[in-house]
């Protein structure tokens, strides 16, 4: 597998990782995802890692990088489906995944993205001067 599929769902992008990522595949995903956020103007990225059984420090860093780069492009990142063993490994490795929001499943992750997007829309409306 050379690429992880990136699906557009309205104003969000959905990535479902069904294989353990090796370094080149993870780097390709990072690049492809940032390009898609830029090209589509997506407001959020949801990454489902429920099928991932192993996360090393490199993969943790890639997730953090994706969140940082998408935030610069005005999109939030939510990681869903993290298995308990993966969470334990990330903590033991000392990785905090700054900027990465988490949710238990895709449904809750989408709700989180919609909440963040709603807050953004409301604050943008507040910034507009009322002509009346």
Description:
The chain has 132 residues and is α/β, with parallel strands linked by helices. Helix content is 49%, strand content 17%. It has 4 helices and 5 strands, in the order ββαβαβαβα. Strand 1 and strand 2 form a beta hairpin. Helix 1 runs parallel beside helix 2. The C terminus is likely disordered.
Ends distance:
57 Å
Class inferred from helices and paired strands: alpha/beta
| Unreliable stretches covering 5 or more consecutive residues | 127-132
- Total E-strand runs: 5
**Basic shape:** globular
Determine Rg (CA atoms, Å).
15 Å
If strands are numbered along the chain, what order do they take across the biggest sheet?
1-2-3-4-5
**What's the average pLDDT?**
87
Strand content: 15-25%
Walk me through the topology.
Elements: E1 6-9, E2 12-16, H1 23-40, E3 44-48, H2 57-72, E4 76-80, H3 84-92, E5 100-103, H4 106-127
Structure characteristics:
single chain, 132 residues, alpha/beta, five-stranded mixed sheet, 4 helices, 5 strands, 49% helix, globular
In short:
With 132 residues, this protein is α/β, with parallel strands linked by helices. It has helices at residues 23-40, 57-72, 84-92, 106-127; strands at 6-9, 12-16, 44-48, 76-80, 100-103.
């Amino acid at each position: 597998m050379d690429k992880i599929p990136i699906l557009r769902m309205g104003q969000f992008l959905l990535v479902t990782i069904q294989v353990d990522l090796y370094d080149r595949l993870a780097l390709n995903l990072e690049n492809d995802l940032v390009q898609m956020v830029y090209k589509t103007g997506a407001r959020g990225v949801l990454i489902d890692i429920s099928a991932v059984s192993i996360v090393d420090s490199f993969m943790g860093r890639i997730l953090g990088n994706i969140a940082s780069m998408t935030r610069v492009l005005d999109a939030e990142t939510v990681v869903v489906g993290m298995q308990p063993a993966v969470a334990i490994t990330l903590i033991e490795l000392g990785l905090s995944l700054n900027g990465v929001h988490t949710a238990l499943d895709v449904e809750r992750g989408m709700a989180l993205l919609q909440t963040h997007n709603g807050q953004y829309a409301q604050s943008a409306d507040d910034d507009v001067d009322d002509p009346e």
